[in-house]
Amino acid sequence: MTDNLKSSSSRSANPKWAIKNGSFAVLRPEQPVLHGWMVIEGDRITYIGEEEPQLEEGVQVVDGTHLFFMPGLINTHGHTAMSLLRGYGDDMVLQEWLQEKMWPMEAKFTSNDVYWGTSLSVLEMLKGGTTTFLDMYDHMDQVGKVVTESGMRAALTRGVIGLCPEDVQRHKLNEAIQFAKDWHGQADGRITAMISPHAPYTCPPDFIEKFVQAAHDLDLPMHTHMSETKAEVEQNVRDYGTRPAIHLEKLGMFSRPTILAHAVHLTDEEIDILAKHHVTVSHNPGSNLKLASGVARVTDMMQAGITVSLGTDSAASNNNLDMFEEMRLAALIHKGVSGDPTAVPAAEALRMGTIYGAQSLFLEGVGALEAGMKADFIAVNTDQAHFLPRTDFISHVIYSASAKDVEHVWVDGKQVVKHGSCLTLDEERIRREAQAAFEGLLSR
Ligand SMILES: N[C@@H](CCSC[C@H]1O[C@@H](n2cnc3c(=O)[nH]cnc32)[C@H](O)[C@@H]1O)C(=O)O
Ligand SMILES: [Zn+2]
């Protein structure tokens, strides 16, 4: 499943180059920040250390003074095309927000809308230092296209709401399977696929079982929304006699590698079930706060050994795709609700936004600045008032920084953002087309 990340990229190999005088977030317990050198060859980091490496003549060396290098951020849950609905329906209860505002508008989405909505999100994410994202949506061929063009890395999945007649269910399931077959391993291996029933409250049990079977057949991970609100947990107990984690375990979902979005309302027993099956969780603090869904038991989950990463959810419930903000929220909220200022320390928040994100998506070889890892990394401009004094850059990144501080971004060894401008996408056109797409949706 992850072989595509291990093999080297088929894109024409970039020459070897090096960074000197950089500060690097290596996040090792004994040494979170390393000052020195990093060498990149093609799509890989081949050296990182304090010692000057032996470099052949002609190798380009770039000066990294005033830059803080970090692994690219990994956004593990979202619906990217929904950036077209940013600001359309705020301050509402989840079920009403979905049923009255989002779903009627989404029913009108064409492939063109998804293309421009996704482009808008990808532009925002890349410029804000996110190098990998998970997207659960439909018209997913368009998303695959945008990912290919942008140079970004993504775990893509055709999410399916099963509240429809059987023939429509079958059609949607087939679409999900076909998408996974067509796109897994595409874009030089930057795209991986998953299989996603939208949620236990939108997909009947026998329908979820068909997704589990498909994930087995295709040897792919699964993704779903689970226990975002109290109301949906109560509904699950009413309809199926059990809480959602037990319900999904019974349906066989956790026999596949699975990443759950939200997982806010969990009992101790459910936490044990998720830990036992190595289920991973995408914690979405911004979206959970905005929809007043509750506060996930992040420290309890992590103590139980569950890998917890961070997601923005869509720009309709966030309302931006700034992963710095999610890291900061994660570091602050769990201190606030527990009364324990040692909960989710800064370095742990940064791991949630990076390496735990890769692990949550079952991706190997991304998410850390280490020799042998994919060269997915970002450079933050530290030559700014809110980055001084030069003490603890990990603290500054979590408690003081934002997406706007990102200066450069590389994915798979290729630079995609330079001095804050996206090199792979036409920014002006995307802004124009996204606005036009939204106006089109309103007028139809
Ligand atoms: N339209 C699709 C399903 C798309 S999956 C993605 C869905 O997730 C929905 N969504 C967005 N945010 C949330 C959330 O916070 N909780 C649950 N669903 C959400 C979103 O409105 C979208 O319909 C079908 O053909 O079945
Ligand atoms: Zn969602």
From TrEMBL:
Question: InterPro entries in the record, alphabetically?
Answer: Amidohydro-rel, Deaminase_MtaD/DadD, Metal-dep_hydrolase_composite, Metal_Hydrolase, MTA/SAH_deaminase
Tell me which EC number(s) this protein carries: 3.5.4.28, 3.5.4.31
Function of the molecule? Catalyzes the deamination of 5-methylthioadenosine and S-adenosyl-L-homocysteine into 5-methylthioinosine and S-inosyl-L-homocysteine, respectively. Is also able to deaminate adenosine.
The reaction(s) catalysed by this protein are: S-methyl-5'-thioadenosine + H2O + H(+) = S-methyl-5'-thioinosine + NH4(+); S-adenosyl-L-homocysteine + H2O + H(+) = S-inosyl-L-homocysteine + NH4(+)
Q: Which residues bind substrate?
A: 106, 158, 170, 198, 228, 313
Supply the source organism's classification. Answer: Bacteria, Bacillati, Bacillota, Bacilli, Bacillales
The residues the entry assigns to the signal sequence are none
Q: How is the cofactor bound?
A: Binds 1 zinc ion per subunit.
- What family name appears in the similarity comment? Belongs to the metallo-dependent hydrolases superfamily. MTA/SAH deaminase family.
Question: EC class of this enzyme?
Answer: hydrolase
Return the protein name. Answer: 5-methylthioadenosine/S-adenosylhomocysteine deaminase
Enumerate the UniProt keywords alphabetically: Hydrolase, Metal-binding, Zinc
Residues annotated for Zn(2+) binding in this entry: 77, 79, 225, 313
Keyword Methyltransferase included in the entry's annotation: no
Tell me which cofactor or cofactors this protein depends on: Zn(2+)
The cross-references to CDD domains, in alphabetical order and at most eight, read: ATZ_TRZ_like (cd01298)
PANTHER family cross-referenced by the UniProt entry = AMIDOHYDROLASE-RELATED DOMAIN-CONTAINING PROTEIN, AMINOHYDROLASE SSNA-RELATED
Supply the HAMAP family for this chain.
Answer: MTA_SAH_deamin (MF_01281)
Q: Which residues form the Amidohydrolase-related domain?
A: 69-416
